[in-house]
Write a structure and sequence with these properties.
The protein is mainly alpha-helical. The chain contains 14 helices and five strands. It has helices at about 1-5, 35-40, 60-65, 65-70, 75-90, 100-110, 125-135, 145-155, 165-205, 205-215, 235-240, 245-265, 290-295, 310-320; strands at about 20, 30, 230, 270-275, 280-285. A hairpin with a 5-residue loop joins β1 (about 20) and β2 (about 30). InterPro entries: A/G_cyclase, Cyclic_nucleotide_synthase, HNOB_dom_associated, Kinase-like_dom_sf, Nucleotide_cyclase, Prot_kinase_dom, Ser-Thr/Tyr_kinase_cat_dom, Tyr_kinase_cat_dom.
Amino acid sequence: MKYLHSTPIRVHGYLTSRNCVIDARWVLKVADYGLPAFYEAQGLQPPVKTARELLWTSPELLRHASLRKKGTQPGDVYSFGIVLQEVVVRGEPFCMLALTPEEIIEKVKRPPPLIRPSVSKGAAPPEAINIMRQCWAEQAEMRPDFNTVHDQFKKLNHGRKVNIVDTMFQMLEKYSNNLEELIRERTEQLDIEKKKTEQLLNRMLPSSVAEKLKLGMPVDPEEFEEVTIYFSDIVGFTTISAYSTPFQVVDLLNDLYTCFDATINAYNVYKVETIGDAYMVVGGLPVRVPDHAEQCTIKINVKPENDRSLTQYKEENRRLHHK
């Protein structure tokens, strides 16, 4: 309103809480300004207002209909004071009075007694209530202009430009930043768990079957005319296990099967399972290849680097067989 009064428009004329709109960013914007000039330029008669719509209108404008068509700057200040009352008491204009809008308009137009909204002292800071009462003064020249109102509100905030909405936005922004960081961390954790699940699924099932399961597609049984199945086990594994600790057995199998897994990756075969010392692979499924037998007849070279455990196990195996 301070800016509006400094423009060529100069007067709003119809200021109420109903044309104070809030956008998606919680910024208040004043609408319906300049309508008196618009009606006059178009040669139109402004719509007749009801008593309820006139509750924001100053006494002098109520008494002079011709003056009310254009409005005045002191009249806008009076309307602003009524809007302040709505904000303070969280209610409509003059809501604390048991009177109809028609009765209120009649009493405002023809004092005495002087009728104004009744606002308790504890409803808002005393400075705010004082500004509100100055805005709805009976004499138009006694009302402050919006420059003065702005300065008084600035003093009310001790020179700060923050208000409850700014504080709320700061809290929302802080919460939003924390929420974004939390979502990012949870998303990373979800991606890691998803990769682990996919790796586990690909180890348990052929990749073609795993992909269908992840997509929710049914896995139909297939018939394969020719496949090659390869079994291997460790010679003397029972004897090795008898002379080894459980951890040594686990380390042996882990090192050996890790080498096996790394080797079969270079061939078109699929590891079905490992049970104890048995290592089972199959060629020719789930992808049909003509040389499946050749793919399975592979030679696995175990050459652990910087790892003496497997060599130690081989030596122990040789000594056991010698005995």
